[in-house]
From TrEMBL:
<dbReference type="InterPro" id="IPR011545">
    <property type="entry name" value="DEAD/DEAH_box_helicase_dom"/>
</dbReference>
<keyword id="KW-0547">Nucleotide-binding</keyword>
<dbReference type="InterPro" id="IPR002121">
    <property type="entry name" value="HRDC_dom"/>
</dbReference>
<dbReference type="InterPro" id="IPR006293">
    <property type="entry name" value="DNA_helicase_ATP-dep_RecQ_bac"/>
</dbReference>
<keyword id="KW-0862">Zinc</keyword>
<keyword id="KW-0479">Metal-binding</keyword>
<dbReference type="Pfam" id="PF00270">
    <property type="entry name" value="DEAD"/>
</dbReference>
<feature type="domain" description="Helicase C-terminal">
    <location>
        <begin position="219"/>
        <end position="362"/>
    </location>
</feature>
<dbReference type="InterPro" id="IPR001650">
    <property type="entry name" value="Helicase_C-like"/>
</dbReference>
<dbReference type="InterPro" id="IPR036388">
    <property type="entry name" value="WH-like_DNA-bd_sf"/>
</dbReference>
<keyword id="KW-0227">DNA damage</keyword>
<dbReference type="InterPro" id="IPR014001">
    <property type="entry name" value="Helicase_ATP-bd"/>
</dbReference>
<dbReference type="InterPro" id="IPR027417">
    <property type="entry name" value="P-loop_NTPase"/>
</dbReference>
<feature type="domain" description="Helicase ATP-binding">
    <location>
        <begin position="26"/>
        <end position="195"/>
    </location>
</feature>
<dbReference type="InterPro" id="IPR010997">
    <property type="entry name" value="HRDC-like_sf"/>
</dbReference>
<dbReference type="Pfam" id="PF00271">
    <property type="entry name" value="Helicase_C"/>
</dbReference>
<keyword id="KW-0347">Helicase</keyword>
Length: 517
């Protein structure tokens, strides 16, 4: 069977061999085992179900949430001589009935359907008449409440497999899934956890960095000037910032387009087309832009504001360098953006999801404060603990010498303990720097022995040190109505002088304020 698969790969797609993960996924599927395939964007997930679809008898159903992507896929397959079609809300009832009739007569090798369709009983009944060897679930993390993009309609997929007299194989595919989400996907789709294939999370051609304490507007202008021949995306967290950035860059002569959900469909399509066709170099956008965009020559992906979690970040940043040539992924960090993201989370979600989203946001903040390899941090986050340092991210190439900061760290930890582990980092920093703030005085913290012991530093520097300590897991954060910091087991070891702490960033740094254009 595998030989036949390679033959099909060659005939229809023109590739001579599978990538490592592809072969093992395809093997499982062809042998009739449910499987989960976790590969980064651009890793080649589509082939993992398209080849089995060609090899197996009948019509493979592909559940995909992205209408535009479905059409692109079907067009590409049709162009390669593979019969395929899609069913989604963009079609007229007539088109839909016609496609369904053709599907029932076994006309297609692949049928793409939107998850919402699966909520219709009559649609499910129609599907029952088809011979379906395989159900591929694209963007499978949408099935999990623990994921970053939960879609309730995905819950119907579990039932879909039960519809058919001969239970089809289920293949779940995703680019972003933490260990918890992977476990949930497996549980819901009856996949044995050992049938998870995870590969290539490292994107060797991408170099990651975090820019902190700099004037973002100035950094951006200089960066774009230096890279004016390259295509890139600048992500911002809100439509308003996208509009502002777009105006200011355009005024500055940058070849730029903008994209966010507040624009009309026509405007969005036009902007996207111009960017895809290299008519403009830079796209300024909210996270509404990029799903299903296959532009290979994106050289940089800058996050002007902090993304809401690592999953979103890696997915967005991963749009750089899809052609395998170098790509640069930079987060421009400002602590105000953490507040902004907290606000957005608080506004947009059901209450019970908020603590989890705040925890994910903390992961993103930790990324911005770690001094370890950034690529490795990302890969660890996604559950692969074997990853080694990349050697080229902002942290790997940071040649500053590291200092022993054990004493300062102990002061911070001791202050947290003395304040009863009931406050956030801002308040702790104020006590350590000897603030006369009303709240500090109301609690009588000026009497603590740790009051003012770091007074030669700014509150901002001390907050940065605390952020670093959080990323080092010396301090934990519990996300109730307000984030509260506490000393972890690892932190206790530092307090007891069992281990020392080193840091490259000094505690004393010049304070530079952000300047939004
Ligand atoms: P994903 O869905 O994981 O984001 P795609 O399936 O779109 O990725 O594949 C990304 C790119 O890699 C596509 O251009 C695809 O044609 C190419 N590709 C996939 N598999 C192979 C392979 N075995 N050999 C060479 N190129 C491949």
């Amino acid at each position: 069977m595998l030989e036949k698969a390679i033959e099909q790969l060659n005939t229809y797609f023109g590739y001579s061999s599978f990538r490592p993960g592809q072969e093992s996924v395809i093997e499982k599927v062809i042998e009739g085992e449910n499987a989960l395939c976790v590969m980064p964007t651009g890793g080649g997930k589509s082939i993992c179900y398209q080849i089995p679809a060609l090899v197996l008898d009948g019509t493979t159903i592909v559940v995909s949430p992205l209408i535009s992507l479905m059409k692109d896929q079907v067009d590409a397959l049709t162009a390669a001589g593979i019969s395929a079609a899609f069913l989604n809300s963009s079609q007229s009832p007539y088109e839909m009935t016609k496609t369904l009739e053709m599907a029932k007569s076994g006309e297609y090798k692949l049928l793409y359907v939107a998850p919402e369709r699966l909520e219709s009983v009559s649609f499910m009944n129609d599907l029952r008449e088809m011979k379906v060897p395989l159900i591929a679930v694209d963007e499978a993390h949408c099935i999990s409440q623990w994921g970053h993009d939960f879609r309730p309609s995905y819950r119907s997929i579990g039932k879909l497999a039960d519809c058919f007299p001969d239970r089809p194989v289920v293949l779940a595919l995703t680019a972003t899934a933490t260990p918890v989400v992977r476990e949930d996907i497996c549980k819901q789709l009856q996949i044995k956890q050992q049938h998870t294939v995870m590969t290539g999370f490292e994107r060797e051609n991408l170099s990651f960095s975090v820019v902190k304490g700099q004037d973002r507007g100035k950094f951006l202008r200089e960066y774009l000037k230096k890279n004016d021949k390259d295509a890139g995306i600048i992500y911002a967290a809100t439509r308003k910032t996208v509009d502002q950035l777009y105006d200011s860059l355009k005024k500055g002569g940058v070849s730029v387009a903008k994209y966010h959900a507040g624009l009309s469909e026509e405007e969005r399509e036009h902007a996207q087309e111009r960017f895809l066709n290299d008519e403009v170099k830079v796209m300024v956008a909210t996270n509404a832009f990029g799903m299903g965009i296959d532009k290979s020559n994106i050289r940089f992906c800058l996050h002007y504001q902090l993304p809401k979690n690592m999953e979103s970040y890696y997915q967005e940043a991963g749009r750089a360098g899809r052609d395998g040539l170098p790509g640069e992924c930079i987060v421009l960090y400002s602590s105000q953006d953490v507040q902004l993201q907290r606000f957005l989370i608080d506004q947009s979600l059901e209450r019970e999801r908020i603590p989890m989203e705040l925890e994910k946001l903390q992961g993103m903040v930790d990324y911005c404060h770690t001094e370890n390899c950034l690529q490795q941090f990302i890969i660890h986050y996604f559950g692969d603990l074997d990853a080694s340092s990349c050697g080229k991210c902002g942290n790997c190439t940071d040649n500053r010498e590291s200092h022993d900061v054990t004493k300062e760290v102990q002061m911070v930890l001791s202050c947290i303990v003395r304040m009863g582990q009931k406050f956030g980092k801002g308040m702790v920093a104020q006590v350590l720097t000897g603030s006369r703030n009303k709240k500090v005085l109301d609690f009588g913290f000026e009497d603590l022995p740790t009051y003012g012991i770091l007074k030669e530093h700014s509150a901002k520097d001390v907050t940065n040190l605390i952020e670093f300590m959080i990323s080092e897991e010396l301090i934990g954060v519990s996300h109730g109505s307000m984030p509260i910091i506490y000393v972890t087991e690892k932190g206790k070891d530092v307090l007891l002088s069992k281990v020392t702490v080193h840091r490259k960033g000094t505690v004393v740094t010049k304070q530079i304020s952000d300047d939004d254009p």
